Please model this.
Amino acid sequence: MMKVTSREAAWAEVNKIFPTDYEKDEASSARAGYDIYRHPTLNYYNRICDLGCRLEVLLGECGENVTNIWIEEPAAETTKQEETKGYGEQLAEKIRATANTGNLPQFEKFVLDRGYEFPTEEGLKAAYDRVWRASHGIMATREEFLAEANLRRDHPNAADTYDVLAELVAEKKLSPGSVLGYAGFRWCLDHPEAVVAYQTDRERWSVNNCDTEITTERAVVEVNQEWGFEASRVKILDNPYYESTDWNWIRFNCAGMSWLMCNGSLYQVYH
Model:
C-alpha cells in the first residue's frame, strides 16, 4: 500500500509499476461499475481499477499481486472537499490514519473497502448489516437485495434476478447466504436469464457467479489448455465467463459428454 496527495501523483506511481501501456477497457468498466484499464492484447489479468479514493493495480499471471495507491490530498487544500465528503469516506480516512490496518475488525475492513459508497451513517450500517447477515448464511430479503443492487445505478430487472435466485434457494441449488453476492454483478442484474445452475453431483448444484464474459473462441482455448479436451470437439453452451483460473464458468459438451468448468474445477453435468 502507498499514499499520495493527488490523482496525478497516483497515476504517476501506476506508470512506474505497470509493465505495459494501458487503455480503458470499456466492456469491463461497464460490467464493474468503475473504470478498469489494461493493455488490449497483453496479459489480460494485469489491470488498473479506478476506485475513486484509490487506484488498485493487479499484476501477475492471474492478477494475484495487488498494490493499492491511496489518494489523500493535504488537509489545507481540501477543506472545502472535506465538507462534501460522505460519512463513509470520512470514517475510512480516520481508520487509515489511526488504526493498525493489519489487524482490523470486520466492520472497519468493510469501511475501508466500501465506505466511500455511503454518504450517511445509516446507509453504511445498513449495508454492513446486509453483508454480515449474508456471511452468516442468512438470505437477503428482496428489499435488502434491491438496496445493494441499486447503490450505483438503478437496475430495472434486479427484482426479477432476485426471484430467480430465490427460486434456486427454494430448490436447494443455491445457499441462502450466497444471494446477496449477486447484487454486485451487473451481468445478472440486467439479464436474470444469465443466472443458470447445473447439477454437478448427486446432491450438489453449481451456479454461475463469474461476471467477466469472454468469447466462445477463448472459452475453447481455456478448456483445452486447462483440461486437455481436443479443441475441435468442444462445443460451448451458454455464455462463457472467465476472470482467472479460480473464478470462471464455462459450460461445454465434448464427445457426447456434458461438462462444466466452474471456479477452477471440472464437473460432469448430471441430467
Observations:
- The longest helix spans residues 121-135.
- The chain has a mean pLDDT of 90.
- The longest strand covers residues 234-244.
- DSSP finds ten helices and twelve strands in the chain.
